[in-house]
Amino acid sequence: MDKKKRLKYILATVLCICVFVAFLLSPLFNLKTINVEGCEYYQSEEIHSTLSHLKNKNYFIMLFENTPFSHLDYLFKGRLYNSEQQLIIDKPYLKSAEISFSFPGKGLVKVSERVPSFCTRNGDAFLLVDSEGVVLEAFFEDAKFDYPVIEGIETSDYRVGNTLVGKGTDTQLELAIKICRDMSQIEFLEGFIDIIDVSDTNRIWMFVKPSLSICFGDESNLSIKMSLLKEILTTKYDGDSNGVIDFTNGENPIFKKNQSSLLPGTDTGGNDNGESEIVPEVLTGENNFLDLNLLG
């Protein structure tokens, strides 16, 4: 190729690149509308207000402005990394956010939200926490919750949107998160359990108002025990049962009326054999065990 043809080729290539860049930077790629998908807790307008600074800006310029060197993959994905992270920080209920662009001028925001799992106290505040231990909200006065209140954990200073941190050992906190994660997986949170006490990790308690208590013992086979408990509560027993469902004496739970008490901080009144003096009242079957086959 002679010099003239080579020069023409280079000029044509440069011209094409300039035209292409000018096309990308044209108003056709300005972000004019934003659609939001996946919101339940937040209204779409709340997401729009947080991202209002993006409106009427060129999306390709924003791509370079929003992409740190440590996340260059977002540049090739066409996603606004910094804006996504800021949105998650501003909205604690958001677990993830993806911002993308479609021609002409349409932005799409796909979000997934965190689901509250339990409440706990921190000083005078109630903290609403999800199953990963992230603090979603803080309340500074008594309020009605649809989620169990965890007792027996001590927490350090908290920050909404961050993971809850326990004081010293995190054993009780980790156990509380594990319990509520398992409960969430079997859809056993709202409307069942009022209080979960993990003060003693070898004797985990749950309470249903006004008079039903559940003793799990330690955390061994806890998910199985909770599945059984869900079946029991949804088919036979409720908060008015006035007794203790005890999972500590073998593989089958036992129901015991509140004649004496197994509750935390009370004397179990054991006999010479170390057995509880609580007299079982058998509500199903002929044994002291809850016959789960008869609960259906």
Fill in the keyword field for this structure.
296 residues, alpha/beta, 9-stranded mixed beta sheet, 3-stranded mixed beta sheet, 7 helices, 27% helix, disordered C terminus
Secondary-structure topology with pairs:
Layout: H1 3-24, E1 33-37, H2 44-50, H3 59-66, H4 73-77, H5 81-90, E2 94-102, E3 106-113, E4 116-122, E5 125-130, E6 135-139, E7 149-151, H6 171-185, E8 195-197, E9 204-208, E10 212-217, H7 222-235, E11 243-246, E12 254-257
Parallel strand pairs: 1-3, 4-7, 7-8, 10-11
Antiparallel strand pairs: 2-3, 4-5, 5-6, 8-9, 9-10, 11-12
Question: Explain this structure to me?
Answer:
The chain has 296 residues and is of the alpha/beta class. It is 27% helix and 22% strand. It is built from 7 helices and 12 strands. The protein has helices at residues 3-24, 44-50, 59-66, 73-77, 81-90, 171-185, 222-235, and strands at residues 33-37, 94-102, 106-113, 116-122, 125-130, 135-139, 149-151, 195-197, 204-208, 212-217, 243-246, 254-257. Strands 6-5-4-7-8-9-10-11-12 form a 9-stranded mixed beta sheet. The protein is elongated and about 105 Å long. The termini are far apart.
